[in-house]
Structures are given as C-alpha cells and as structure tokens.
C-alpha cells in the first residue's frame, strides 16, 4: 500500500513538473511574440514616417501620368495619415508571423536549412501582413498622386465607387512583389549577420544588424523594381481600365511595350536609396527594441 502511494506521488510530481515546464515555455514564447509585435510596430512607424517623402517621389516617378502631372515635389507628405495608421499593425503582423514561423521551423532542423527557413517564414509573413498593408498602400499612393485631395476624401471615393474590393486592388501584385523581395532580403540579412558574428566572435550589435539590413534591402529593392512598378500602375489604375484587373504580367508587358527597360526600372534610384536607408532604420530599430524588451 505504501509503495502504491509513493508511486502515485511520483507520478503526480512528474506531471506537475511537466506542466510547470510547459507553462514556462508558453510564457517564454508569449513574451517573445509580444516583443516581436512591439519591436516590429515601432520599427515600422519609424521607417515609414521618416522615409515618406522619398516614397512619394518614387510613386510619382512610377505613375502613368508622369512625375510633374502627379504633383512633382508639391505636397510631398500627401497620404501620410494612411501610412501613420497602417504602419504599426502592418509591421507588427509581419514580425509576429516571421518570428513564430521561424521558431517552429528551426526546431530540430539542420543549420544548412536556415536560409530556406528564413525564406518560408518571410513569405508567409508577407502574405499575412499584406492584408493590412494593401488598403493603407492603396489610399496612400492615390493621395500621393492627387495632393489636392485629402486622405479621407480618397478613402470615401474608393469605398463609394469600388467598395471594399477597391481597397484590396493590387493585393496579388503586392504579394507577388513582397515575396520575392523578402526571399532575397531576409535570408541575406540573416546570413550577413551570421557572417559578421562569426568574424568578430560574438553576436552583432543593433547598429551592425542595421548595416546588414541596409545592404540586404538595397539589393532586394533593385532586383524587384519591375514588380514594384507593376504594382504601382495597378493600384493607380482607373476602374475599368486594363491595369485595374490586377494582372501583373499584363501590366509588365504594357510597360515594356510603351517604355521599355527604363519604364520597368522607373524610380529604381529613390527605391534603392529609400529601402537601403529603410533597411538600416527598420531592422536596426527592430533589433534594438527587441534587445531592450528582452
């Protein structure tokens, strides 16, 4: 009888220890995810507001009516309310998905699979984040090429003439732009950090992470510019026009026929400059905020 009681006590003790470990792991995972949300949100707001004028110039260079007719350097902050509202949830959603998927895929996987893990995590994160990013981007870009209209007027006009689906005009083209971008940027960023860490013998500081982010972002921006131009044309297209259908290949073909290679790479310089600087601010701020929170 005493032996049975002792065995039952041991089983209960083991169960208690297991539940304690599980609850500790759950709390630890929850803390990491909360830090990812806050760090990503802060980083997103910082980079979007600081680089907004450069983004406006890039959008106007890519618009079908041309830079001058789209507003030139006038009203360079047109559309900023849309960005201010969408930045935090968009970046937070990206990083909570990215860190969560990366954490799940890393468990028990070989180190040589790390780049593939980062690619999958970044791609899934983009698909989820674009649900928030695209409506904000549509309103922002239309405001950027119509500086005389307020953000609220443009939002009302889209909802009245096109409905909710108008806010998601270009969702497919945005995802098709962001996934290749992230497939290049995030594995390159992680690889550069690992290389720098190995060279110096310790984990990179936040400023070093920012430098890696600048290089990775600039390179990814250059190679995905044609997709960005196609996305801009689709988002700015009038309802009923050929580009309004959201067909990325058709948009790319139209640009190639009318403007050639220069048209496909319209705005590449401000895009590279903006995203290089953006990568420095965004990924550097993300790492620093995350380090402070953890």
Write the layout of secondary structure elements.
Layout (H helix, E strand, L loop, with lengths): L1 H49 L1 H11 L17 H27 L7 H31 L6 H12 L1 H4 L3 H30 L5 H18 L1 H12 L11 H17 L3 H26 L1
Quick description:
The chain has helices at about 1-50, 50-60, 80-105, 115-145, 150-160, 165, 170-200, 205-225, 225-235, 250-265, 270-294. The protein has about 290 residues and is mostly helical.
Structural write-up:
This protein is 81% helix and 0% strand. By secondary structure, it is an all-alpha fold. The protein has one domain (32-293): Mitochondrial carrier domain (Mitochondrial carrier fold), CATH 1.50.40.10. The chain is globular, with a radius of gyration of 23 Å. Residues 2-6 and 8-22 have low confidence and may be disordered.
For the termini, the CA-CA separation is 49 Å
Fraction of residues in β-strands: under 5%
Structural class: mainly alpha
Q: Gyration radius, to the nearest Å?
A: 23 Å
Characterize the main sheet. Answer: none
Contiguous uncertain segments of 5+ residues: 2-6, 8-22
CATH superfamily: Mitochondrial carrier domain
Number of domains: 1
- Overall, the morphology is globular
CATH architecture: Alpha/alpha barrel
Q: How many helical stretches? A: 11
Overall CATH class: Mainly Alpha
Q: Do you know the CATH topology?
A: Mitochondrial carrier fold
Order of helices and strands: HHHHHHHHHHH
Average predicted confidence as pLDDT: 82
Number of DSSP strands? Answer: 0
Summarize the amount of helix as a percent range: over 70%
């Amino acid at each position: 009888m005493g032996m049975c009681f002792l065995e039952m006590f041991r089983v209960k003790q083991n169960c208690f220890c297991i539940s304690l470990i599980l609850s500790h792991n759950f709390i630890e995972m929850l803390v990491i995810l909360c830090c990812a949300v806050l760090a990503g949100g802060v980083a997103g707001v910082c980079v979007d507001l600081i680089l907004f004028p450069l983004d406006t110039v890039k959008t106007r260079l890519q618009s079908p009516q041309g830079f001058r007719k789209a507003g030139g350097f006038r009203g360079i902050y047109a559309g900023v309310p849309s960005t201010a509202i969408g930045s935090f949830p968009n970046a937070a959603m990206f990083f909570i998905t990215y860190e969560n998927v990366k954490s799940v895929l890393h468990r028990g996987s070989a180190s040589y699979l790390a780049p593939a893990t980062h690619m999958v995590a970044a791609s899934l994160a983009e698909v989820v984040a674009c649900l928030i990013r695209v409506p904000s981007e549509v309103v922002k870009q239309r405001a950027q090429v119509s500086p005389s209209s307020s953000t609220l007027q443009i939002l009302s006009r889209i909802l009245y003439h096109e409905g909710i689906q108008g806010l998601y005009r270009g969702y497919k083209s945005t995802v098709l732009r962001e996934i290749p971008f992230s497939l290049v940027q995030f594995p390159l960023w992680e690889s550069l950090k690992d290389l720098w860490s190995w060279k110096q013998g310790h984990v990179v500081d936040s400023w070093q992470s920012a430098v890696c982010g600048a290089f990775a972002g600039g390179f990814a921006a250059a190679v995905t510019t044609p997709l960005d131009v196609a996305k801009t044309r689709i988002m700015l297209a009038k309802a009923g026009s050929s580009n309004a259908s959201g067909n990325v290949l058709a948009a790319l073909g139209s640009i190639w026929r009318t403007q050639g290679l220069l048209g496909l790479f319209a705005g590449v310089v401000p895009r590279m400059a903006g995203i290089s600087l953006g990568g420095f601010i965004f990924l550097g701020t993300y790492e620093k905020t995350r380090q402070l929170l953890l």
